[in-house]
Amino acid sequence: MTPFTAELIGTFLLVLLGNGVVANVVLDHTKGSQSGWIVITFGWAMAVFVAVFVAKDFSGAHINPAVTIGLAAAGKFPWESVGPYILAQLLGGALGGATVWLAYIQHYRKTGDPTLKLATFCTIPQIRNTASNLFSEVLGTFVLLFAVLFLSAPNLAAGDPSQPVGLGSLGALPVSLVVLSIGLSLGGTTGYAINPARDLAPRAMHALLPVSDKGSSHWDYAWIPVVGPVVGGVLAALLFWAIS
What we know:
It is built from ten helices and no strands.
């Protein structure tokens, strides 16, 4: 796989499984209906795990424009590759959002509340306050990228030089645990987008797809889960650069 393809597929899997667990919990007449916030946060963490272990060997598994920009700001990623990565991430997010809709299309038809339908595509705050909502997204993404910048491979020695050393697919687990922690601790305000591709692209799908009785896509709020994560990612990169 090329890095572009890996970022597209990785972000597709992230949104498919992440928004998929939201759909399972909030839509009516599903097997997981009303199973709660713990299921959503754990499902999102596992979505990150799957997406990262699929893409990591080919692209580094950014699967998030804020991570890509933050890594570039920290000098750990070339700026000339930022644009292609973000394009791949947005395309993957759009495909993931559309596929969740197809998978749960009968349940969208059975669900009356348009706010719940929107939640399966993108984030919306529990309490609308621009400054507070923006701060929540900045903070969550700051924690994400700051932790990611400190992640390192295990220092292991191979007994047999012909055998690879490392955790294999389990190497994706630390990032998913960081996302689980953010969701449990900081996600209750805005739904912790912490990723423009996870929010903006599926929000566009909500606007474009014939979702039954879908209501507003809330484009007046859409800039916050884009700007907030980018600012948080850059702040984390600057602090990492200053102390490392």
